[in-house]
Amino acid sequence: MNAKVHSYESFATLDGEGIRFAVFLKGCNLRCLCCHNPDTWNGEGIIIDSHELVKKIERYRPYFSEKGGVTLSGGEPLLQGAFVEEFFKLLKEKGISTALDTSGSIIDKHTDNILKFTDHLLLDIKQADNESYMKFAGCTLDSVLDFLEKANKHKVRTWIRTVIIPGINDREEFVEKIFRITQKYPCVEKYELLPFHTMGFSKYEKLKIDNPLKGYKALSAERLDELNSYLKKLNTAE
Ligand code: SF4
């Protein structure tokens, strides 16, 4: 089964636990306002077969250490569900840990099998209600929670992340709302706040795509600290 790949990162440290081989697939069904990878949205990318990709990855296996492995990201990897299912199954047969970084907006005939072969899920919850979610990303909160429910059923260790953008969602009440949602799912190990940054802005210019957050500023380290302290308090109160 072939995949359309945007790029690889052989020593990724920000895409799950340990040192990981990250594969970024081409294509995305959403258009999140804060996307810093608009270059993944369109085009064919590198075409590679799942067996060939596993062979390539096996060369890096000595670097994975105990916790590392492979992370599939994008774009939206679940747009290529048949490939993801086969690729993760092959990795598990080789004893390699799998992590899936997804928006959780796609559920289809491959979903259950993919989750069966997924060790770790990195899932974004971008907004706290359906209407805002639709405006912000192009899907509903409910569709993402349906995906999370499935992950929970398959007992996939899950980290939830939210990008915090000054002037949009940098509020304690917002963080608390998402925190309360995550509490309903025993598979959720961690809820993380990711600071919005402007490093992807140049990609919009290069691709001549309108940047919906042009003029917005990166989240300051101080405000991130404040929101993280609030989150810590919520966690200890539980
Ligand atoms: S799902 Fe990810 S890749 Fe797709 S638009 Fe949103 S942030 Fe960008």
Describe it.
The chain has 238 residues and is of the alpha/beta class. The chain has one domain: Aldolase class I (TIM Barrel, Alpha-Beta Barrel). Helix content is 35%, strand content 22%. It has eight helices and eight strands, in the order βββαβαβαβααβαβαα. It has an eight-stranded mixed beta sheet. The structure holds iron/sulfur cluster. The site of iron/sulfur cluster has 12 residues, from loops.
List keywords for this structure.
single chain, 238 residues, alpha/beta, TIM Barrel, eight-stranded mixed β-sheet, 8 strands, globular, binds iron/sulfur cluster
Which hetero ligands occur in this complex? iron/sulfur cluster
The major β-sheet equals: 8 strands, mixed
Mean pLDDT: 96
Q: Could you give me the name of the CATH homologous superfamily? A: Aldolase class I
CATH topology: TIM Barrel
Give the overall shape. Answer: globular
Low-pLDDT windows of residues:
none
Order of helices and strands: EEEHEHEHEHHEHEHH
Number of helices, where a helix is a run of at least 4 consecutive DSSP H or I residues: 8
Count of beta strands: 8
Number of domains: 1
Name the CATH class.
Alpha Beta
- Indicate the percent of residues in helices: 25-40%
Question: What gyration radius follows from the Cα positions, in whole Å?
Answer: 18 Å
Distance between the termini: 45 Å
- Which CATH architecture is right? Alpha-Beta Barrel
Spatial order of the strands forming the largest sheet? 3-1-2-4-5-6-7-8
The helix/strand class is alpha/beta
Strand proportion: 15-25%
